[in-house]
Design brief:
It is a single chain. This protein is mainly α. The chain folds into two domains: about 1-75, no CATH class; about 85-200. It has helices at about 35-45, 50-70, 85-105, 110-130, 140-165, 170-190, 195-200. Helix 3 packs antiparallel against helix 4 (about 110-130) and helix 5 runs antiparallel to helix 6 (about 170-190). The radius of gyration is 34 Å and the shape is elongated. The N and C termini lie far apart (about 90 Å).
Length: about 210
Amino acid sequence: MYCPRCGTPNEDGDRFCSSCGAGLQKAKEPQEQVSARDRLGRIVGTTRKARLITGATVLALVVAVIAFIALEPDSEETIPRDGYTIAADQLCLKAKGEIVAAERRAASGGTAAFATELVPIVADWRSRFEALAVPADRTEEAQQLEAALLEAEVQIGGLARVATDGDKAEIIASAKRSDAASAGVEEAVASLGLGECAGATIGLAGNTR
């Protein structure tokens, strides 16, 4: 069968020209009863080449649909800026402001004085945050922040004790653990969508003088 557009020879049964893609029209014949098998053959093609082309087309469509489904939820996962987010953000900013103020007050007292002042600030932050009514869609993220604040409270409390009586190596090791706990708090804050507070990054452990 020759293509009516470009003249390229094609195999009998091909529905489209292999060169230009034009439809290959057959002369109209009297209508007849066609079995389901024959209809399927006409859809997918009767030759191996035609079936491969049809199969590739279907596969491309399936991949496109899967990609669309995989990407679609991303637009729905954005954490809303609702009353809970605003309240949690404000608590976080308030606590960070108190941490900065504590660092200034303890500037001459070194690590021990700063860590001692930090413990009640972090404990109060955690207590007030846990009192908020958490939306069902953010329970996991809220629990992560609660756990991160508790870990920071424990590690900073340990730093306050070590900085008073421990040697330099112990103080440095404890300060590193406190910094790691601080980083965990920052990650949890960002995961919960507390954008304003996430932008006010500070170190909970402070200096190690």
